[in-house]
Amino acid sequence: MQPAARYGAAIGVLDAWLDGMPAEQALTRWARGARYAGSKDRAAVRDHVYDVLRQKGVCEALGGADGRGLVLGLLRAQGGDVDAVFSGVGHAPAPLTEAEQAAAVPASDPALNVPEWTRPLLVARAGDTLPELLESFAHRAPLWLRVNLRRTTREAAARALEADGMATRAHGEVETALEVTEGARRLRQSLAYTTGLVEPQDLSVQRAIAQVDWPHDGTILDFCAGGGGKALAIADRTGAEVFAHDALPQRMADLEPRAERAGVRIKQLAGADLAARSPFDVVVTDVPCSGSGTWRRDPEAKWRLTPQALEDLVKTQAEILDKASALTAVGGRIVYMTCSLFEAENEAQVAGFLARHPEWKVGVTTVDTPLTASDGFFSAELIHDPA
Ligand SMILES: C[S@@+](CC[C@H](N)C(=O)[O-])C[C@H]1O[C@@H](n2cnc3c(N)ncnc32)[C@H](O)[C@@H]1O
């Protein structure tokens, strides 16, 4: 496909998204109908769509509110060649109308990268760095890998990735972390990944997990295990028995093969079995949240989030924390985690828990934003201290 035709395809996908279809579904539907599109074309169309979603407000202001306007806005935001794309040649979008050409183009405002109602919530997190944080949402997050130290060393993992055409950079402090600087799209096919030497995991999560003193024996429950990313990282660092639970057990469907690949054991527990296996020495609650820390990787989520949805999430988080406390051993710990930048889901949630449960105190807390890691992430250790 010609580069301009790829933008044309992105316009169609964005129109479907604006009609309510999830972006991945709209991309898949387009790809099924575009047998002529090769893997590079599909990747480029996907990049254009996600580039728009990362800065939809900016694209709207610079171009317009429909798919065509958004792509026009994207080109203007990126300083692209508008006339070369909107040429009308072949499958390229039609040339700009007189009205489109005559419309005033305002200066790009990074505040438009996030929904208006979330800005005050981000001010509370970012303070003076708010402009940089807002700007960061327009850009792709780098890919970080966690080296599975049970399987290999970080140096050997980097060499294996290099053999598969990927370049990496080791993080200075987090001993498991490798940033992919070249060839990220090759990861899923690489031997290093398929043989369990590395797992994609954000730097912020790796840092938070590295800062907790995991027990050498006893039991750890990952209460909101989902795909098991946190459980796998924790299992790599502990001799304790690791259990995984999720209110939606189907979310843990990949956990067994992932654990096998990583060479760790994680036992899945249904809701009915939790009480019998409790108490646990540590209960990890990686709760459902706004995901505002991961908006660079999942930009669709920020446009879907509503104040009501956030309020509901905060209630669910408090309920999960209360349930977790009932499953924790006397003197045990909860590790509360979110990938949110909002105080209501983080510090305020912890303060609410401590107010409801005076026999608990807070331990190690880590806070990252996309400016200090690649995602925003919050983690707080809550210690049962009945004395
Ligand atoms: C942020 S995701 C977890 C991601 C996962 N820990 C990982 O690292 O891939 C939150 C998970 O909590 C689960 N969940 C929601 N409500 C829950 C509840 N009341 N009890 C347990 N799990 C719950 C969701 O099904 C979802 O899989």
From TrEMBL:
MF (Gene Ontology): RNA binding; RNA methyltransferase activity
Record: active site: 339
UniProt keyword annotations, A-Z: Methyltransferase, RNA-binding, S-adenosyl-L-methionine, Transferase
Protein name as annotated: RsmB/NOP family class I SAM-dependent RNA methyltransferase
Entry-linked Pfam families: Methyltr_RsmB-F, RsmF-B_ferredox
Organism, scientific name: Gymnodinialimonas ceratoperidinii
Domain of life according to the entry: Bacteria
GO biological process, one term: RNA methylation
Domain SAM-dependent MTase RsmB/NOP-type: 133-387
The family this protein is said to belong to: Belongs to the class I-like SAM-binding methyltransferase superfamily. RsmB/NOP family.
Amino-acid positions noted as binding S-adenosyl-L-methionine in the UniProt annotation, renumbered to this chain: 246, 286
CDD domains xref list: AdoMet_MTases (cd02440)
